[in-house]
Design a protein that fits this description.
Elements: H1 4-27, H2 30-57, H3 69-105, E1 109-113, E2 119-122, H4 124-130, H5 141-144, H6 148-156, E3 163-166, E4 174-182, E5 186-193, H7 195-231, H8 238-269, E6 277-280, H9 281-296, E7 301-305, E8 311-314, H10 316-332, E9 339-347, E10 350-357
Parallel strand pairs: 7-9
Antiparallel strand pairs: 1-2, 1-5, 3-4, 4-5, 6-8, 9-10
Length: about 375
Amino acid sequence: MFTPGLRSELQRIALLAVLLVAAGYFNGYSLLTLIAGGSLYMLWTLHRIHRLNRWLAAGGRDFPPPASGVWGEVSDHLYRLRQRNNRHRQDHLNLLTRIRRITDALDEGIVILDADRALEWWNPAAAKLLSLQRSDEGAPIINLVRAPAFVAFIRAGLFTEPVELEAPSDPNQVLQFSANHFGNNEVALVVQDISRLRHLEQMRKEFVANISHELRTPLTVLTGYLETLGDSDAEVPASWRQALGQMNEQTRRLTLLTEDLVTLSQLESTALPARTEPVPLQPLLGGIVANARALGGSAHHFELNCPDTLIAQGAARELHSAFANLVYNAVKHNPQGCTIQVRAGSDNGRLWVEVSDNGIGIDARHLPRLT
């Protein structure tokens, strides 16, 4: 199917050819007349192409030059295409402006690194947190943030876990860095100020340590008096004995809670060991179960299932503390007659240790508190 413009152009050529043939017939120079007429038509066509090209070179912002036939259609198509591209470009600019405003409003710093881990772009929050200047564009990020932990974080390029370190300009400010790959091996780096969070965490640790320490003394005194009263049954009225039993039970619960708080405080304040060693699990877990039997007397039934060949890589003291805490809690917080199972094994190159019981369990609303 011919377009209207092409049809009009062909009709124009056909009419010109008829006129040139007729003129050549009358003047006796048919060939020269056809050549001259065809040359004039080609010059006119080149003139229209030149005008269209000049309009395109000028940016095509105004209306295209007036034209008819196929070149008029080409001009109209180019004009509509240019208008559509302009609209798309404006939409993209509006979107970029909106994204820029959003990133400018964020409290988190955002830094874009190229494939060589050099600075490409950053938002105002990143400039403030990392003390970045416009002249830093194109500089390697590890030249500006020189902390060894951060340098290792960037060079490793795994970005599976965030890294925390002091701010370059303020040692009292704690920053958390996380990153992800995108595009052509580029990196989006997110910087957060977690100073307040770490301060609150430190306050919580201090509170746990202080409250556990302060509770120990009054509980020791209270337990001593209750034991004294319990040893002198003859002097205690019968109406008080039930109350004394309940007081003993509640004091025991508070004592266990205080011991748990002390254990938590010790775990949080103890630095992770720098060195590890092979630790056979069977004797480690066997000793814990033996101590748990002594702690619970004959009130509980224990089952230990651990192959002799299992060896963990870690710090023996820390592993003992972690596993013992699980087993002793099962002893202390379950009623008599409970079966406590301690199992260990390996799966896909990983060791696992499981402590389970058929006791009262943990209420679902308390599960989020477990760490």
